[in-house]
């Protein structure tokens, strides 16, 4: 089998695994919110903005009033509207979510961490279980076994429900003892 086919199968399997792990009630809640919304606005940054654009285009193809946040054609947000935020973002995403709530829109976070700051700021979440834990295990690191060990982490600090270090790749963790 060619390398292209192997990589394609790996990507499709990863997507299948992530999508099948989404709780059906979360999906139903999101679909109901989309159907009820006057206007749907979706926010993402970086690579996720490409996925956001594709998602918004599909919503528009279905006849829904959908926009990408910060595009020049994006209307004002208000009551009856839906703001969907890719919560793999930082301060800017939190700011967008805060404005969405303040303006009366229903705010939904798509997140890998249902206990994150972004999740606490929205009306509900749709959790996409990231492959992060699997990556750590493949690298020989069991995240739960790190408790009490001396480690060096190259990540960033977050201060939600107390300080925590965010590490998303095994290369960021060095076990010292």
What does this protein structure show overall?
- With 177 residues, this protein is of the alpha/beta class.
- The chain folds into two domains: 125 residues, 3-Layer(aba) Sandwich (Rossmann fold), CATH 3.40.50; 44 residues, no CATH class.
- Helices cover 40% and strands 20% of the residues.
- The chain is built from six helices and nine strands.
- Strands 2-1-3-4-5 form a five-stranded parallel sheet.
- 21% of the residues are buried.
- The model has no long low-confidence stretch (mean pLDDT 85).
Oligomer: single chain
Helix content: 25-40%
Largest sheet: 5 strands, parallel
Task: Assign the CATH superfamily of the largest domain.
Answer: Glucose-6-phosphate isomerase like protein, domain 1
Mean pLDDT: 85
What structural class is derived from the secondary structure elements? alpha/beta
Portion in strands: 15-25%
- Spans of at least 5 consecutive residues whose pLDDT stays below 50 are none
CATH-defined architecture of the largest domain: 3-Layer(aba) Sandwich
Rg, nearest Å: 18 Å
The CATH topology name of the largest domain reads Rossmann fold
- CA-based shape: globular
Query: Kindly, what is the distance between the CA atoms of the first and last residues, rounded to a whole number of angstroms?
Result: 42 Å
Number of strands: 9
Topology of helices and strands:
Layout: H1 3-20, H2 24-36, E1 40-43, H3 47-61, E2 66-68, E3 82-86, H4 91-102, E4 106-111, H5 117-121, E5 124-127, H6 132-138, E6 151-153, E7 156-159, E8 163-166, E9 173-175
Parallel strand pairs: 1-2, 1-3, 3-4, 4-5
Antiparallel strand pairs: 6-9, 7-8
């Amino acid at each position: 089998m060619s390398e292209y086919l192997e990589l394609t199968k790996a990507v499709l399997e990863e997507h299948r695994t992530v999508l099948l792990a989404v709780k059906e009630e979360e999906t139903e809640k999101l679909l109901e919110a989309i159907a009820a919304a006057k206007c749907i606005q979706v926010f993402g940054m970086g690579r996720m903005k490409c996925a956001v654009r594709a998602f918004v285009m599909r919503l528009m193809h279905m006849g829904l009033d959908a926009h990408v946040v910060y595009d020049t054609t994006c209307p004002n947000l208000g009551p009856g509207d839906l703001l969907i935020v890719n919560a793999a973002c930082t301060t800017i995403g939190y700011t967008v979510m805060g404005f969405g709530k303040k303006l009366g829109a229903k705010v939904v976070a798509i997140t890998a961490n249902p206990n994150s700051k972004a999740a606490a700021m929205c009306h509900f979440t749709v959790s996409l279980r990231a492959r992060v834990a699997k990556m750590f295990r493949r690298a020989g690191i069991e995240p739960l076994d790190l408790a009490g060990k001396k480690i060096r982490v190259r990540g960033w600090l977050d201060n939600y429900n107390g300080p925590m270090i965010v590490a998303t790749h095994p290369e960021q963790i060095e076990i010292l003892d």
